[in-house]
Amino acid sequence: MPADVHDSRPLHAVLGSGPAGTTLARELVRRGHPVRLVDRTGSGPAIDGVRRRAADVATEEGARAAVEGAAVVYHCVNVGYHLQVEVMPRIQQAVLAAVEASGARLVVLDTLYPYGETQGAVMTEETPWRATTRKGRMRAALDERYLAAHREGRACVVLGRSADFVGPGVLNSTLGAAVFPGALTGGEVLALGDIDLPHSCTGIEDVAVGLATLGERPEGDGRVWHLPTAPAVTTRDIHTMIEKRTGRPLNVVVLAEPRPFGPFDEQFIAEYAEMFYQHTEPQIMDSSAVERAFGLRPTPLEDTLDATVTWYEQWLSRP
Question: How far is CA 145 from CA 7, 167, 178, 286, in A?
Fold first, then answer.
């Protein structure tokens, strides 16, 4: 028996050690759960209460090893933007097969992509799935298969949808390494599309709290939930809030249309172009359903930005 299933308490296995998976692992430890954190290398800084394991969950063998002995599995794996349409379905197939065989519950971190363009309408769990992009259609197809597995009794599955991430440790986001380093050093701060449109962002700590809650509350299974998300504000408003925290004006460069710039190289932009509508129409996500059902409250955006600026100050001063 693996070392991390000796504990008599049910094991929670987190697949993916990016910002969401790592923050979730810490949240689960805080709640008293034994935690396994899985990625392809099994390496990384030690986290109290977390055992790391190396496994490639895009393969059936790797997925079985990743979920072995776990009562709850959290799928927080993502891949490079240019690989998503090809690789994410393979990961789903392997992970679903593994939890179907093991009997573990599956909590999936999801995106807003299946909704597609909404012309600014507020997105709730009842919003129709009308994606027309390759990645949006791919995500919708994955979600349909997850929910079908639950309906058919093959697995217990629940999906938690998030808006764009923001928070400590978040680098690859429109509110990540393209914004905070420049804000703190006087360098360029990148923004996309119309910065006067409201745009929801989900704090990474709220992603973790929402997923952990779904992992503990099986009565939520079999459906999509929007993870706790603070009310949407405009990107310009966020810039003003960051300026107050850094004490300097931001040197903002706005890309009105997709083109390579700064951390967004040609390969990324070529893949992201179809998703650029997210920055040319309001992106407003409503999370009141999960808040009512489970008594959750999103972290105020001001508090998330405080924590993010502090984290980036430390990140920039690292040796």
Answer: 33, 30, 34, 24
> What angle (nearest 5°) sits at the alpha carbon of residue 196, between those of residues 193 and 200?
80
Q: Mind listing the pLDDT tens digit for each residue in 47-59?
A: 999 999 999 999 9
For residues 42, 51, 147 and 100, what is the CA-based torsion angle, rounded to 10 degrees?
90
Q: What is the predicted pLDDT for the residue at 262?
A: 76
Helix (H, G, I), strand (E, B) or coil at 239: helix
Q: Which amino acid is at 73?
A: V
255 and 138 within one domain: no
- CATH assignment of the domain containing 148: 3.40.50.720
Please give the Cα distance from 217 to 158 (Å, whole number).
Answer: 10
Clarify whether residues 191 and 111 are in a common domain.
no
- The predicted structure's pLDDT at residue 131: 98
Number of structural domains found in the chain:
2
Exposed, middle or buried, 103 (CB in 10 Å: 0-12/13-18/19+)? exposed
Q: Residue for token digits 């998030």? A: 162
Kindly state whether residue 152 falls inside one of the protein's structural domains: yes
Same domain membership, residue 135 and residue 208: yes
Distance CA 30, CA 10 (A): 15
> Is residue 37 a part of any domain in this protein?
yes
Going by C-beta distance under 8 Å and a sequence separation of 6 or more, which residues neighbour residue 168? Answer: 19, 23, 204, 205, 307, 308, 310, 311
Within this chain, do residues 172 and 219 fall inside the same structural domain, yes or no? no
Q: In the chain, pLDDT over 90 holds for what percent of residues?
A: 93
Position 1 in a domain:
no
pTM for the predicted model, two decimal places: 0.96
Rounded Cα gap, residues 82 and 170, in angstroms: 19
Residue 180 domain flag: yes
- Burial grade of 8 (CB within 10 A; 0-12, 13-18, 19 or more): exposed
DSSP of 61-117, one letter per residue? HHHHHHHTTEEEEEE-----GGGHHHHHHHHHHHHHHHHHHH--EEEEEE-SGGG--
